[in-house]
Amino acid sequence: MAEILEYECPCCGGKLEFNTGVQTLKCPFCDSEFSLDVLKQYEEDKNENHSDDMTWNTKPGSQWDNGETDGMNVYKCGSCGGQIIADQTLGASKCPYCDNPIVMTGTFSGDLKPDYVIPFKLDKNAAITALSKHLEGKRLLPKVFKEQNHIEEIKGVYVPVWLFDADTDSRFRYKATKKKRWSDNKFDYIETSYFSVVREGKLGFQYVPVDGSSKMDDTLMESIEPFDFKDAVPFKTAYLAGYLADKYDIGSKESIGRANDRIKSTTEQVFRDTVSDYDSVTVESSKVHLTNGEAKYALYPVWLLNTIWNDQKYTFAMNGQTGKFVGDLPIDKGAAFRWFAGILPICVGVVYLILRLIS
Predict the structure, then answer these.
(1) What are phi and psi of 203, to 5 degrees?
(2) How far is 50 from 44, CA to CA, in rounded Å?
(3) Are the C-beta atoms of residues 263 and 79 closer than 8 Å to each other?
C-alpha cells in the first residue's frame, strides 16, 4: 500500500488537505495554499541538519628569543591571583585589577610570545583628564571618587587578547508576515500574509577580539571597543617599557566559544537586516559554517582604575588607543536622601498648583 504523506501548514501548523478546486494543498484553518513541490522543498529544508560547524586552528604566538625577556619580572597578586609583567625599572606594588599588594615571584619566562601589540597612544595625563571629566557634574557621587590622590592610581595595562579570523558561509530561513487592515460599516478586518524568506551568503571576519585574562571583565573590555588594528605592530618588548602587562590565563582554545558567539551574533544581525518591509520576522532555522579559522595573540592598551566603596568594587577603563572611557559610578545614599528631601517640597508644590488649575 502506498504511503500517504501528510503535511502541516507552514503558516499555522494545521493539517493540509488537497483542494480539487484549485488543485493544491490548502489549509482549512487559515486558507493558505501550497503546491506539492513547494511543500517538499520546505520539508527538506526544515529537516536538514542546521547545526553550526565552527572549528578553528588555534596555534597563535611564537616562542621567545634568547635574552628577549631579560629584565622582565613577574608579580603575583595574592588576592585575585593575577600575574603581572613589568620591567625592572618600573616595578610594581599594586594589582591593576583589584588594587591589592603584589609581590615579585621571579623573572619572566615561558608562555607564548604575542604576535602583535597596539602601543599606547594616550598617556596617563589623558586618562586622568578623561576620568575627571567622567566624574564632573555627578552630585550624588561619593567624595572619595573626586580625591586627586585616588585618581593618580590609574594604571596602564596591556591586556592579552586572542584575535580570531574566519570566513563564514551561512544560511537563514525566516518566517515573515505582512498585515493588511481595513474596515467597513460593520467590522474591522486584518488579512495576514505569510512568507518563507531565505537568505544565504558569505561573510569574512578579521581580528575578532576575545579577552584572554580572567581578571579583566569581558563586558568592560568589550565596552571600550573598538580597537583599530591598523595601529598594531609586530610585538617587541620595548613597547612594554613604562607599562604593566597581564599574562594570559585563558588560552585560545578556551576562548573559541566566545569568538563563536560574537561571530554568530554579528552574522545573524547582518542577515536579519536584509529582511525588511515585513510586519514580523522570526528565525525558523540557521546554519553558520566556518572555514579558515585562525587565532592570533596580541596585547591591547588599557588604562585601569579600581576602587572599593562600601565593600563593592568599581572599575573604570579607558581605551589606550582611542580614549573611549567607561565605568559605573556608586551613589552616596546620604547625598541622595538630602537631594530628594530638597526637591520634594518643590514637586509637591507643582502638583498642588496643577490640581488647582484643573479643578
Answers:
(1) -135, 145
(2) 12
(3) no
